[in-house]
Specification:
Largest sheet: 3 strands, mixed
CATH class: Alpha Beta
Order of helices and strands: EEHEHEEHHHHH
Number of strands: 5
Oligomer: single chain
Number of helices: 7
Strand content: 15-25%
Distance between the termini: 44 Å
Helix content: 40-55%
Shape: globular
Strand order of the largest sheet: 2-3-5
CATH topology: Rossmann fold
Radius of gyration: 16 Å
Number of domains: 1
Structural class: alpha/beta
C-alpha cells in the first residue's frame, strides 16, 4: 500500500497571520487579558519550525501521523509571554466565557476548550525544533 505522512498542525506562531496577531492586538493596546479561565491548554509551533518539519518529513521519508507542535502552554501563560515581549502590562480580568460564546458562537468551543497534544513522536524520529520554548519563539518573532 501507499505510505503516508500526516502532520496535525497546532497553533502556528507568526507575525504574518494566524492566532498571534489576533492575540497580540488587544495586548498592544493595553487591554489584553487571558480568555475564560486562562487554564486551557494551547499547543503551538513557530512557523519556521513547521516549515522545517515538512522538509524533515519529506527528506527522511518519515511515515505516520505526527503532531506538528513544539510545546504546550496555557492561554494565560501565552498571554503573559506576549505582554512581556510587547512590554505591556496585563491588568484586566480574564475575558468571560459568556462574552466569547456571544461573540464567536461555535468557534468559542475551540477557544475555550484548549488542545493539549504532544510533539514527542516527531522528536523521537530525530526532529529538532529551532524554537523549542515559547519565550524563544516569541522573542524571534517580535524581533523581526
Amino acid at each position: 500500500g501507499m505510505q503516508i505522512s500526516v502532520l496535525r498542525i497546532g497553533i502556528v506562531l507568526s507575525k504574518a497571520g494566524g492566532a498571534l496577531p489576533k492575540l497580540s492586538l488587544p495586548i498592544s493596546w493595553g487591554v489584553g487579558a487571558p480568555i475564560g479561565s486562562g487554564r486551557q491548554s494551547m499547543s503551538w509551533i513557530h512557523l519556521d519550525d513547521l516549515v522545517k518539519m515538512f522538509v524533515f518529513v519529506v527528506e527522511r521519508q518519515v511515515m505516520g501521523t505526527y503532531n506538528a507542535v513544539t510545546q504546550n502552554t496555557t492561554n494565560a501563560l501565552l498571554t503573559q509571554a506576549i505582554a512581556q515581549q510587547l512590554k505591556k502590562p496585563l491588568f484586566l480580568p480574564n475575558v468571560p466565557s459568556f462574552f466569547l460564546k456571544i461573540s464567536f458562537g461555535e468557534m468559542s468551543k475551540i477557544i475555550l476548550g484548549g488542545n493539549r497534544v504532544s510533539g514527542i513522536k516527531i522528536t523521537e524520529q530525530g526532529f529538532k525544533p529551532d524554537y523549542p520554548t515559547l519565550e524563544g519563539a516569541l522573542s524571534d518573532i517580535f524581533s523581526k
